[in-house]
Amino acid sequence: MPPTPQPAPLSLTVRPSAPALAPLIGAMGYTEARFAHAAELALPTGGAQLLVNLDRDALTSTPLRGAGRSTGGAAVHGPSTGPAVIDPAQQSAVVWVAFRPAGLSPFLAVPVGEVRDELAGLGELWGADGAVLRERLLEAVADGGPRAGLRTLETALLERARAPLAPAPAIRRAALLLDRGTPVAEVADRLGWTPRRLARRCADELGVPPKRYARVRRLQRLLRRVNAGQSPPDWAALAADCGYHDQAHLIHEFRALAGITPGAYAPRSPREGNHVPLPG
Fold it and tell me: Domains plus CATH for the chain?
């Protein structure tokens, strides 16, 4: 028998409409999709997400090195610095928020570093408000569709946010410089900070120490280049262009941060470069 055709995915991505959320949230959206593969690798970005599984009241994430984590269907995934195995079935109907660097901080009562690489249930983080958010979104989507669900999520985020509602300018600049490949010592010099102060502020507000953040963001620069290309990657040229010492350094860093070799990298699509289906 021929394989059962998969339904066409539905994907809606928007910027937050509330001006107060714009400095904190890069994008938010609603996705419906079905996948043939049973597991996939989620690659690190250094950023944090809020996830709400509307299909089932469960979310899981299993780092390649470490114990798996399970929560109810609404959770925050802290800034990611390593690869994790996730279940694509949990993405069949999901509402998500991608936070800007340091943008998660106003929504937590603890430093962002305490949820680094963690899947933390919203009930643990927000109490009763987090525990009922999934039900609020289910009702909103059932009554008014995905856009109504996203409006409800914006309202919930505004209810939870604590002042100040924008990352400190210095930490935003640090994140930008690190993202561009500026050496950590030079970032500290430009800000007029000691290396220790930079490390502390990045760990508390970005959620990731600066050297680790710089390594992960360099990997992301590399993945963007790979997925924008129309021909097989020239890894030696990419190593030089993306800030690696040489091709051997690129391969070592790719394995360390993505859990696979560059040659094994085959994402779901060029637009979904951080999702790599795993063989059955």
Answer: 10-160 (2.60.120), 169-277 (1.10.10.60)
